[in-house]
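Hello forum,

I keep getting stuck at the same step: I have a sequence, I want structure tokens, and every attempt I make locally crashes halfway through. Rather than fight my setup again tonight, could one of you with a working pipeline run this one for me? It's a single chain of 365 residues.
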Amino acid sequence: MSALTVLAETCDRLVDDGSLVGWVAGVADRDGVQISAGGRRSIDGPPMDPQTLFMIASCSKPVGGVLALRLVEQGVLSLDDPVSRWLPELARPRVLTRPDADLADTVPAERAITVEHLLTMTPGFGWVTEGPLSVAMNDAGVAPGPFPPPMTPEEYLGRLASLPLANQPGSTWRYHTSSDVLGVLLARATGRSVGDLLEEHVCRPLGLGDTGFSGDAGRMASVHGADLSGALVPFPVPEGTFTTPPLFESLATGLVATVGDQLAVLASLAGTGPALLAPESIAAMRRPHLVDGQRAASSDLLDPDNNWGLHVETRPDGRFGWAGGLGTIGYADPATGRAAFLATQVTVDAPGTVAAFEGFWPLLD
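Reply #2:
Ran it on my machine without issues. Output:
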């Protein structure tokens, strides 16, 4: 019995017991692509199928990494470039003396923020869980979350740059915010929208017809979460989010895609599909970049044995990829040339998604 068949049986049981509404999963390798689906797009909606669109949340981040590295290969930018070349708002950041310090308790940044800092999520800004900076990020609307910022890129960057950094650039891994700043940088560096760049450098070369920053509401799976009893309930999505073109094309959490499209991206990274990146870029992408001191703020998101590369999680077994908070997960394995993706559209902390994710890993064996 194949690993995909086993996962399908597991997910169908989770649908039957009310832990999932529906699911789509697939594997791509040198023998081709296999995709299975079960359940429904919403509790009373049409059946899930391979054409179902998912809000892939943080699975957008590896796609952003691929896009950035494509532009590095073409000489548009380099990893060592200071971001202030395109983002003057970040030219002279102030840094808190400690992450929970008063916002006025700052010192100058000891070094410039670089493109590589964004890709490794070590620029000094990102997820902050306590203290005045956390409050200020929430008040300004620039705190990490499951949906794109509800403002223009210029307004987003201006608000973020008005706040101090939590840490010195290069010193600490902080999740999420780098991806949205990366999108602003890529657009300014090329004079084009992130959507146009995505189409030219990722979608068109791979023949992706269902990946973008908005999609057909009639094909979209609804998002669910679990209440305190474990029962599934609708998860609130702001009206128009993912179904109309956004003000902010977010590489942190903004993409809509089918499982098949995500498999094509991951298969490219696994060495099975058409190559988007040179082997040297893929090697750099999947190489662990964090040293122990940089991991201080990562314990809630990275397992102790795992690390972070260039916009992807890297694992000791060589697999790399990431998961999304709205119930998606995808990884590539260059050792086998295999890629796998699973989408539930039930939030990642819900028991059903936790159980489904546990059954995901054998897809790569």
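The domain at 71-190 is CATH 3.40.710.10 (Beta-lactamase). If your local run keeps crashing, start a new thread with the error log.
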